[in-house]
Write a structure and sequence with these properties.
By secondary structure, this protein is an alpha+beta fold. The protein has five helices and four strands; from the N terminus they run αααββαββα.
């Protein structure tokens, strides 16, 4: 199935914020990781779809502004929002931050064991954990606990200028 890239039109059938060619360009400029460069076009397309879906699921309630159209398939393009510096976010294109974050999440989809949105069998905070091989054991206790949800810090930093830290802010 061919990838349908959102261009800023508010497409009802878009399934990615980035094309394979733009993903190739991004990763070439950022170290050309073999997980990306060695992947087939079909694998890259799947990864870009999953990366886009991840961004919409995780940041959907935090994106600044509001969806441009109720019929668009994805959260972007958006209208009525300003970025961290106070500049209007154009409603006819996608912010570079969203495109870059898509490329990063696509790479993680390819390279992460367990995927980028793994199921959690027993939700909650881990207080301590112990791992060992034979007689060698390592025990860690976490002050305040350790989340079972994996955080992708680079992606969070990439989108921080186009999202709120905690959730949708009410419009006056």
């Amino acid at each position: 199935m061919a990838l349908t890239v959102e261009t800023g039109s508010g497409s009802a059938s878009a399934d990615s914020y980035l094309s394979v060619a733009d993903g190739d360009t991004y990763h070439t400029a950022h170290g050309n990781p073999t997980a990306w460069s060695g992947a087939s076009t079909a694998t890259k397309e799947e990864a870009l779809r999953m990366g886009t879906q991840y961004l919409d699921l995780v940041y959907g309630q935090r994106w600044l502004g509001y969806r441009k159209s109720e019929t668009q398939a994805l959260d972007w393009p958006r209208a009525g929002g300003t970025d961290y510096d106070g500049y209007w976010i154009a409603s006819t294109s996608l912010p570079q931050e969203a495109k870059d974050a898509t490329a990063e999440m696509a790479l993680r989809h390819i390279s992460e064991s367990g995927g980028i949105l793994p199921d959690i069998a027993e939700p909650g905070i881990i207080g301590s954990e112990e791992v060992g091989v034979g007689s060698i054991k390592d025990k860690k206790t976490y002050l305040g606990g350790k989340s079972q949800v994996k955080q992708f810090r680079k992606v969070a930093l990439l989108v921080r200028s186009i999202s709120t830290p905690y959730g949708r802010m009410e419009r006056a």
